[in-house]
Amino acid sequence: MSARSLTTRLLAIGGATVLIGGLAGCSSGGSADTGGGGDVEITYQADNSPATAATAKPLIAAFEEANPGVTVKFDTRPQGTEGDNLVKTQLSTGEMADVFNYNSGSLMQALNPDNTLVDLSDQSWTKDVDEQFTKVVSTDKGVYGAPIGTSFGGAVMYNKKVYADLGLKVPTTWDEFISNSEAIKDAGTVTPVIQTYGDTWTSQLFVLGDFANITAQQANWASKYTANKESYAKDPALAGFDHLAEVKDKGLLNQDFASATQANGLKMLADGTGAQYPMLTNAISTLQQDSPDAVDDIGAFALPAEDADDTTLTIWEPNGLYIPKTTEGDKLAAAKKFIAFVNSSKGCAIQNDTGTPGGPYVISTCTLPDDVPPMLGDLQQYIDDSKATPALEFLSPIKGPNLEKICVQVGSGISTAAVGAKQYDQDVVQQAQQLGIKGW
Hints:
By secondary structure, this protein is an alpha/beta fold. The protein has 20 helices and 13 strands. It has helices at residues 5-10, 50-66, 80-93, 106-109, 113-116, 131-135, 160-165, 174-187, 205-208, 211-217, 221-226, 238-249, 262-271, 284-290, 329-342, 345-354, 375-384, 403-411, 417-427, 429-434, and strands at residues 40-47, 70-77, 99-102, 138-139, 142-143, 146-148, 152-159, 191-193, 274-280, 298-302, 313-316, 319-322, 388-390.
């Protein structure tokens, strides 16, 4: 997979029910004062998925109603690498839309934001944004993005009924996780750990979802990794590969792990034939669609570290809204108003009405609706407790294309954890060199 990692792949889960073009925040929207006294038109660009349009169009309509004299034209671009290249081209040629929706993290950093984007650090909504999100839309010189949509976690989704029936508690260490899994196995009727290598990307969760635990032990690991001064072949990063191998070695997986798909895994989780499924939590929208009666039975916990103090939730941050430096004058004033409206109570209400959030918001003034799955409360607790950290892809551009293949081999017992980790360290070299990163 490319540096977009799981994010691009997972945004499609659940079709148009997944919130990928959502809004965030709840400060007051207000009327626009564009500074020029006349009508002004701005353009808002986002990807061309149906779910994005499902949120963007009512958002624009509500903004225009609240801001007479301002018109917003909705423009779209392709998804994936083609869309990435178009964004970079439009920024370099001065043809970018007045506001655009794009990735946070390393892909945003690749836009050279200090030279291409408007600093939004003076905007009132910035004080309400979670610091972890602020980190992935900022440089030392400014804050360039506002959140749009919700975060989601790389966690273990689990069936609470199975846990209750066996008297199990949510594990906070890896040993507790294994102990729970062995107790489930001994009960004889439920698969302890679900794996679904028929969809190869799902094999990566034990590795990628463990990243927050790495940073809990070594806060600067991502920057050292980017500089080729850390690797997956040694602790603390090796643990993810070790865990992937251990659940197979101890016979804790479903028998059809090699061919099962994510849809199969979610069904097992929903009907209680599988107890624990390492997965991105925006998969809850698929459960709502396919197994609505089981949604209240599903919880989530962070992939456990060796030490409970290090157990931290890995978060996939939402996209950001950005303004290019080519937007000036009345258009700049209107663009800032549009972003403020996205971060308003009306904007939040539109998000809640047009999609199913896959996780918590990253802005404190925006709240989830009352009828969201209980699992989202589990994720919110980690954020409230300051026990959540962005996934590696938001902090480093380095991700090799063969991680899912390597994880399938380790998770199937074909390769050892040590071999797989070394293979992945080799896998990233070419990409790092192509990106021109120093130290490679």
